[in-house]
């Protein structure tokens, strides 16, 4: 076993041991549904900002974007900017009403004044599908990455996927949201710290002159690639509105005591994530100059650069951080999936909202196990799928199925039950259908000559279509009761009066 | 904040509440529009003028790099502006409405 592996394995064990100790501590404070799903609303805005960053910055975005910049140059940077712009939108339109109106899931908000059973069924379907696609991306990424990072140990893909699944289930089952939050905070600090040190090493190498670094980057890499503007706009829409429709992100707003802390947490999260993406593309350009990308796997650009500049020990440290990154994100996803399954479908739809505290926590744990097992199976079945493409798909579904119904129900008085369901179903069916008919599946997977739908990302069609469906159906099925409740709702939306 | 909204429905017609809601909507919409403008300005420039991105601005650092950092910083700045406004103005208005709800004024 090489030197780097020893360092990686030691860091890895320290991380696992400390997070398990944390889980044991959190487990003692995780008895009620509010504690399980929302950490008892005891997280501060600053802590939640870091946890949101830890929930959002996946291995795909760290290793994937660094690799993309290292090979394609500026196009990778465009991606990283896209991942950030959803945050202000999330703050201005969603964060505060979400916190004031809901309890544990974003379906709570949509169901607040509409007929809860059809709404929860539709919203939970959108949530679960988004979570499953995102989870598959993370699991496949985890398996591949661990295989690469721990090459000397001969860790196999299958073992890695099962290992991640088990650890994630332990965190969530016993420690609920509290353990998940602290795992995400620790990971965010490690990842941002590690990336900062790596960028410092790059700058030192170029005598602290960014100008010297960029003078060695090939000129063509500093320009955007040739791509159709429609593709770029469509992807931009998916990234922008997808963030405000990701169930595991939205769920984090329930962990803070009130709307003020919710908005504060977006400010901190945007700052941390923005800083992180600036680091990430700098690392990518550094790798483009210092690492031979022709012989390096795209996802290994950042770790290889760490090896070149910081030696085996730093490579080992960064590998362990990448692993912690994956664990934190999958734990957040599992919790979000479990809440949709248990809180929305079981308690909300099957039990019509009537369940004892004990029963709620019990089904939440059953939901977590279901999600954990599903994640491992999906990771095994989709081993050959491209990770970046799966992440793009998850954002497209979140932006098309979850975001329009959520926004319509919050801001538009006339939004009716049938309208909100129509928005969700239209967004869901169109986003997935157009991806199947598009170049990635229709041409690359099914081997047809021409795609039926020309764009890689469906958002430019599926988001407007979901809004139009929601508006037209709402106007056709006026719901006076829901409209009257909209007025009541306002006191809660704007002033937090009656908020949980 | 455990008061139910139902006992306070008269507040819906309170001019102060109406003012609070419309100010919050206006400010949110303006900032959303600015965010959309900044980002789609960036995307449209990418679509229609690729070459400007490689032009050197500070030494060998290109316009594209600085613009990318600029878009990221402006997103953060916009969230900061909103938090500043909400902490200074909005929270005070909310507190007055909550006070009224408590006393049933």
Q: How does this structure look, described?
A:
The complex is a heterodimer of chains A (500) and B (105). Chain A starts with a helix and ends in a 5-residue tail after the last helix. Chain A contains 19 helices and no strands. Chain A has helices at 3-27, 33-38, 45-56, 59-72, 74-101, 106-111, 116-149, 157-205, 210-215, 229-242, 247-252, 259-290, 301-350, 357-381, 387-411, 417-437, 439-443, 459-476, 480-495. Chain A has 500 residues and is mainly α. With 105 residues, chain B is mainly alpha-helical. Chain B is 71% helix and 5% strand. Chain B has helices at residues 15-48, 63-103; strands at residues 56-58, 61-62. A two-stranded antiparallel ribbon of chain B has the order 1-2. In chain B, helix 1 runs antiparallel to helix 2 (63-103). The longest helix of chain B has 41 residues, at 63-103. Chains A and B meet through helix 5, helix 9, helix 10, helix 12 and helix 19 of A and helix 1, strand 2 and helix 2 of B.
Keywords:
heterodimer, A: 500 residues, mainly alpha, Sodium/glucose cotransporter, 19 helices, B: 105 residues, 2 helices, 2 strands, 5% strand, elongated
């Amino acid at each position: 076993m090489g030197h780097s592996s020893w360092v990686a394995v030691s860091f890895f064990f320290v991380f696992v041991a400390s997070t398990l100790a944390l889980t044991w501590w959190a487990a003692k404070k995780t008895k009620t549904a509010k504690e399980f799903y929302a950490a008892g609303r005891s997280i501060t805005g600053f802590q939640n900002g870091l946890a949101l960053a830890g929930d959002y910055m996946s291995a795909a975005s760290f290793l994937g974007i660094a690799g993309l910049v290292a090979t394609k140059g500026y196009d990778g940077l465009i991606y990283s900017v896209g991942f950030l712009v959803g945050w202000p939108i999330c703050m201005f339109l969603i964060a505060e009403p979400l916190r004031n109106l809901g309890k544990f899931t974003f379906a709570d908000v949509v169901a607040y004044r509409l007929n809860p059973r059809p709404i929860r069924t539709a919203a939970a379907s959108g949530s679960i599908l988004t979570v499953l696609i995102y989870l598959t991306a993370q699991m496949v990424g985890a398996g591949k990455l661990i295989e690469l990072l721990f090459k000397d140990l001969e860790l196999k893909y299958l073992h890695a996927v099962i290992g991640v699944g088990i650890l994630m289930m332990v965190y969530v089952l016993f420690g609920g949201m509290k353990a998940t939050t602290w795992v995400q905070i620790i990971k965010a600090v490690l990842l941002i710290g590690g990336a900062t040190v790596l960028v410092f090493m790059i700058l030192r190498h170029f005598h602290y002159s960014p100008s010297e670094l960029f003078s060695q980057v090939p000129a063509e890499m500093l320009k955007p690639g040739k791509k159709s503007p429609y593709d770029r706009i469509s992807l931009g829409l998916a990234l922008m509105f997808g963030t405000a429709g990701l169930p595991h992100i939205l769920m984090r707003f329930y962990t803070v005591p009130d709307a003020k802390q919710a908005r504060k947490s977006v400010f901190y999260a945007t700052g941390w994530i923005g800083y992180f993406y600036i680091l990430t593309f700098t690392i990518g350009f550094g790798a483009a100059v210092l690492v031979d990308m022709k012989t390096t796997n795209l996802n290994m650009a950042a770790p290889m650069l760490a090896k070149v500049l910081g030696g085996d020990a730093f490579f080992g440290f960064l590998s362990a951080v990448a692993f912690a990154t994956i664990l934190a994100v999958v734990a957040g996803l599992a919790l979000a999936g479990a809440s949709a399954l248990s809180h929305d479908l079981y308690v909300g739809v099957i039990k019509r909202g009537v369940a004892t505290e004990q029963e709620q926590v019990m089904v939440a744990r059953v939901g977590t196990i279901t999600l954990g097992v599903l994640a491992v199976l999906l990771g095994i079945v989709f081993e050959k799928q491209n990770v970046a493409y799966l992440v793009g798909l998850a954002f497209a579904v979140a932006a098309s199925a979850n975001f329009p119904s959520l926004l319509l129900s919050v801001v538009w008085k006339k939004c009716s039950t049938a309208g909100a369901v129509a928005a969700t179903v239209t967004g869901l069916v169109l986003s997935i259908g157009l991806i199947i008919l598009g170049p990635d599946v229709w041409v690359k997977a099914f081997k047809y000559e021409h795609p039926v739908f020309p764009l890689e990302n469906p958002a430019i069609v599926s988001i407007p279509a979901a809004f139009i469906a929601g508006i037209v159906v709402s106007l056709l099925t006026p719901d006076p009761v829901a409209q009257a409740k909209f007025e009541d709702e306002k006191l809660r939306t704007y002033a937090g009066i009656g908020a949980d | 904040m455990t008061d139910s909204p139902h006992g306070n429905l008269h507040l819906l017609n309170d001019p102060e509440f109406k003012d609070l809601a419309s100010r919050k909507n206006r400010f949110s919409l303006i900032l959303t529009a600015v965010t959309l403008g900044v980002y789609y300005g960036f995307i449209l420039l990418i679509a229609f003028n690729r070459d400007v991105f490689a032009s050197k601005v500070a030494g060998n650092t290109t316009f594209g790099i600085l613009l990318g950092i600029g878009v990221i910083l402006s997103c953060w700045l916009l969230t900061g502006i909103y938090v500043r406004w909400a902490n200074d103005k909005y929270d005070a208005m909310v507190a007055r409405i909550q006070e009224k709800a408590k006393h049933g004024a």
